[in-house]
Amino acid sequence: MPAPHLRPDHACLIVHGKDQPGIVAAVSALITRNRGNIVAFDQYSDDPTGGAYFQRVVFHRPDLAAALPEIRADLESTLASGFDLQWSLTDQSTPKRMAILASKQDHCLLDLLWRHRRGDLPVSIPMVVSNHTTAAEDVRSFGVPFFHVPSTPGPDKSASEARILDLLAGNVDFVVLARYMQILSPEFLERVGVPVINIHHSFLPAFIGAEPYRKAKERGVKLIGATSHYVTSDLDEGPIIEQDTVRVTHADSAAELARRGADVERQVLSRAVLWHAEDRVIRHGNHTIVF
Amino acid sequence: MPAPHLRPDHACLIVHGKDQPGIVAAVSALITRNRGNIVAFDQYSDDPTGGAYFQRVVFHRPDLAAALPEIRADLESTLASGFDLQWSLTDQSTPKRMAILASKQDHCLLDLLWRHRRGDLPVSIPMVVSNHTTAAEDVRSFGVPFFHVPSTPGPDKSASEARILDLLAGNVDFVVLARYMQILSPEFLERVGVPVINIHHSFLPAFIGAEPYRKAKERGVKLIGATSHYVTSDLDEGPIIEQDTVRVTHADSAAELARRGADVERQVLSRAVLWHAEDRVIRHGNHTIVF
Amino acid sequence: MPAPHLRPDHACLIVHGKDQPGIVAAVSALITRNRGNIVAFDQYSDDPTGGAYFQRVVFHRPDLAAALPEIRADLESTLASGFDLQWSLTDQSTPKRMAILASKQDHCLLDLLWRHRRGDLPVSIPMVVSNHTTAAEDVRSFGVPFFHVPSTPGPDKSASEARILDLLAGNVDFVVLARYMQILSPEFLERVGVPVINIHHSFLPAFIGAEPYRKAKERGVKLIGATSHYVTSDLDEGPIIEQDTVRVTHADSAAELARRGADVERQVLSRAVLWHAEDRVIRHGNHTIVF
Amino acid sequence: MPAPHLRPDHACLIVHGKDQPGIVAAVSALITRNRGNIVAFDQYSDDPTGGAYFQRVVFHRPDLAAALPEIRADLESTLASGFDLQWSLTDQSTPKRMAILASKQDHCLLDLLWRHRRGDLPVSIPMVVSNHTTAAEDVRSFGVPFFHVPSTPGPDKSASEARILDLLAGNVDFVVLARYMQILSPEFLERVGVPVINIHHSFLPAFIGAEPYRKAKERGVKLIGATSHYVTSDLDEGPIIEQDTVRVTHADSAAELARRGADVERQVLSRAVLWHAEDRVIRHGNHTIVF
């Protein structure tokens, strides 16, 4: 995976739909006639005899911004009309706007803020929203706005969710749940209108739901893990972006599992965020294609 | 973990029971007064304020065989009577006798036979039993007896299980299921009287039961794994000895997952077998302590 | 990496040379006009502003064999003449012919033979050549010819190397040194005329030369590794195809390092052989691009 | 490895010297007669027939502080006089004082400060010393004093080293070089009088010295690594405490290697610091025993 810096005059084109002969040729001819030079090309068909087709192309094109409307029109007529494919084109000089939702645990939150400051994540961070105030000072020391939205007591989260939706509306391109300990309602997920990425502190599908480290200790596993996935209305069942594991022993308490798992969580989440921000991840049903 | 070769005049002592002050001192004094010199010592308490205590000691003692009755009497009076602890003592110059049960898939079976021939497993292999004949020639080329016990059709496995129990009775110290595709009945497990070690082709507790690679493909996981565990009457729920994982991608078919998983399976199983053969694994409820 | 089986009517095209705009478009148009459908496409430029360009395309083409001369002529005029690029085209229904050279250690040798028998390596194995006779029976039990070529005593290896060259000439597409303990002369490497792949039992460039496990023990490393590389006349300095490591501790003797390293060696070598056999590896100076 | 919190009334005893029969019995009897209860016990002999012996025992003893002089006297007469062994005893309720030396790169520095704030490192941090001012504000936001000691230009570092020695003298129990880019003189190492731990950004002994990521890119390795070791006057040759590796590809630039390596560096260093702080690491010549 190349360096994540924002690249002027580079565009990323995602194409997917029904596999058909000639897609690669059509896409590359289109890029060539629009004076682009391909710098990265990934392609995948889940069934060469007629399944789904996925493609990611990064190309360099001088004066990209001026040319975008023309390129988009060409894509629409060539791919959408000609091949019945879906496509999206993003300008890689524009960072995606990422909101972070967090609770008391700050390791994933601080890790993202710090990677962003180092220039390792091609995103902007317009806000952190938390149902606790503990991280406010830390977040603001990174120059990032912090909003405290207390969780509404009781099962009806609609008031606090409405407040969060107000903050997000129009301001963000995706949301990251950095160990956010509230379950978002299906209504929230429908209304938020942007992808939501979660980090779950187990190797899914093992230990779905609450307290996975305690459950891992009870089951006596020899590895623990973490999973980053897109959030859907099925808890911990959304498309997996990235996972990893680390070795533990009988001597590790549940608290020690949590301590060691924290390292895996922040690495897995940071890779998922990076890949999403670089348009490397395509959702397909409950799966992801990661180029 | 030191080299697994059989070691003359070395004994392995396992002690477990309720944690109490003075166990280490009592055990080490016992070994010293029986003219043993400790070469490896591992100890674990699951709760220092009064939980369960586990200890593994390997000691060298000239003329061990002659001294064993005396040492055993001393252990019985010191540990069993004095501390109410359970103990077992094995002579490390005597290989454990391992039977292998297999079906059509031969990768775990052949891997164990190879490692044994290389001198990497401190066991003897008195027999391989399979419900298929495909591996007969390979097994016998290693100088190991092969017995074909066809599975009884229908849900009642008692006839074939009885045949297997006849073969095993008195001849083996533990049994390894090297991708044996029959579910053993609770009656079999009760009557077999020796530990049974299985390799399951998933990272348990994910993908319990049949066809874990197909399920892994359907869930879209980014790692696959394998788990070796002691067999209990709860399918895939016994105490875990060892696990490992390997990275896969969206491009890997279920068949490719099976091909890559086969490497993890044989490594995980060979480690579990080695550790069991070296008396490194202590069962405690549904957990294992692996020293 | 998809399944390694031989695929009828599939061709693999490798293209490399100076990066220029329009290569992807030209190649994909060429495949389309020759009635091929692209099933895998990988591309890499080491410097988008004008470095070296590498591409691997697998395409399906009904009646491929009959069409190959025409496709080759088109490649020659389009890529070689038009773009000054190098190309090679292989028919993926034809297995590469792999000779294995071995010595006394048999773990890498047997692992390759066994993977081949399982259908996991898309190669044929016309011969195993060894300077010892120990593995003869094992090799022949896999239906593979075994030739014993004793090493010539003294520094001049020319007699035994000449004998090996006679056996290989015209019969093999690549050679694998599966822990072959003789250093091949520059003359041999020049005359053999096919790629030679070695497995070195260390994480290169650490512990070049003889006895890497002893050196690893002396240095007190906490991981050991293995490296598979193309052989050049600079000992252990050729282009690396694949590497891996495994954790060890202070308690592991040099013999134990060798035992555990054997597992890493056979995995690393088998991956390197698979990727070479699938035309996934492109050499570029002292580097490899692995698609 | 159990949780790293400071534990009142727990002592850690390290014993090493020439292996002799009866050491375990003598040590455990000593602890028992001093009313201690052993909670962890690790032991290693590098040669059971008469090599070096290493032991780490953690025991709980009510009113430990009051009993320490008596226990120390017993250790001196029993182990030093009786067995000619070296020993050290530390009170595990007292954190070790750790100074951090850093330069411009802040990832290892900030990682240690974060882990400390989370309670994951049983140390106190009396100071950070840097030859740059960039991290001053960050460091002080953790409540840790920051001292700027500019590097003396030219080969003679004695002025800046003298300044650093003044700051450290009497105030610290060990020093961590968190990507400190100055080579410390043998005189400094002699005068500092406490262990110095470094993180090197390669898998030693590969890529000793400057710019290991550039060298790794040039060699074309498929894994990069990091190594934490005690500093000696031989650059990058001191006893290794911990190492790890991560997979890279041909597509990763040297800058990308550095970015990904940063994650490995901070994990490897944090583990080395934790184990040193918990008295798990014993130096023996150029090796470490890590319990």
From TrEMBL, chains A, B, C, D:
Give the pathway annotation: Purine metabolism; IMP biosynthesis via de novo pathway; formate from 10-formyl-5,6,7,8-tetrahydrofolate: step 1/1
User: What are the entry keywords?
Assistant: Hydrolase, One-carbon metabolism, Purine biosynthesis
> What range(s) does the ACT domain occupy?
12-92
Where is coiled-coil annotated?
none
Task: List GO molecular-function terms, semicolon-separated.
Answer: formyltetrahydrofolate deformylase activity
Instruction: Enumerate the NCBIfam families for this protein.
Output: PRK06027.1, PurU
What biological function has been recorded for the protein in this entry?
Answer: Catalyzes the hydrolysis of 10-formyltetrahydrofolate (formyl-FH4) to formate and tetrahydrofolate (FH4).
Please give the name of this protein.
Formyltetrahydrofolate deformylase
From which source organism is this entry?
Microbacterium rhizosphaerae
Q: Which gene encodes it?
A: purU
